[in-house]
Specification:
Length: about 280
Amino acid sequence: MSQLDLRELHSTEFPVPAELQENVAITSLSRVYNWSRRNSLWPMLFGLACCAIEMICTAASRYDLARFGMEVMRASPRQADLMIVSGTVTKKMVVPIVRLYNQMPEPKYVLAMGACASGGGPFKEGYNVVSGIDQYLPVDVYVPGCPPTPQALMFGLISLQKKIDGQSLLDMDEVPWYGVGPSDPVPVPILGPDVIDPRQMELIRQQAQKAAAGQPFGGREMPAAVVDSVVKAKKAAAPAAKPAAPAVAAPADASAADDPEKAERLRKREEALARKRAAQGKSE
C-alpha cells in the first residue's frame, strides 16, 4: 500500500486539497472495484498457432507485463479471468475452448488476438476453420494483425483496462456477475461432420423437416415487405400491354384445294401461329 498513488482514485466531484491528495482519496465503490480488477488480470496460458509465439514474447522481460498486473499467466481456467485466443480456431478446437471458458470464474473476459481468431484470417470460409471466435464466445477486445506484435497485444490489454474502468456496479448489464445467481454457461458446440452450435438446433431441425418434405431449405428468404416493393417496381417499369392484333383470315388459296399436302401445311402453320399468340399474351 506504500506504493499506491491515491491520486488515481480521486473523483473530481469532491476535490481534495493538494496537501492531502497523497493521504486521502474520495472516490466511489465502482472505481475501487474496477481499479482492483484491472490491475490483477490473470491471463490463461494456451496458444493455438503463430500468434501464441507473439503472446509468449509479450510475457518476456522486454515488455514487462508486470506493470499492468498481468504477468501471472495461469495454466488452469479455475485461476484465470482473461482468455487470450491467440491463433487459428479450428472446428475441432472450438469445443475445448468453449469448455475452458465455462470453467473460468467470473468476472472473465475474452481477447481475440490476430486475424484468425477475430474473423478467420486467410483461412476464412475454410472447411476446418471457424470464422471468428466471436461466433461462440463474447469477445471484449479484438487485436488485429497476422500475427500482431507484442506492442499490439499490450495495446489491446490497455484497451481492456479502459473498458473495465468504465463499468459500473449499478448497471447489471455491464456487470451481470455482480447480480443474483450465476450466469448461464455458453453451450458447448457439437463436433460431428461439421461443428454445430446448440443455439441453432431449432433452425437446423426446421431445415431438416423441409428437406425431408422435398421443400427448398437453407436459402435466404426475403422479407414480405421487400418482396412487395420489388413486385411493384417491376410492374411500374414494365411497358403497357399492347392490344392484341385482330386475327386476319388467311387468303383463300385456290391451289390448296387441289393439293392436300399444301393444305395440311397451311393448317399446321395456322395452329403454330395461334399457339405463339397465346404464349405472347400470357407473357405480357
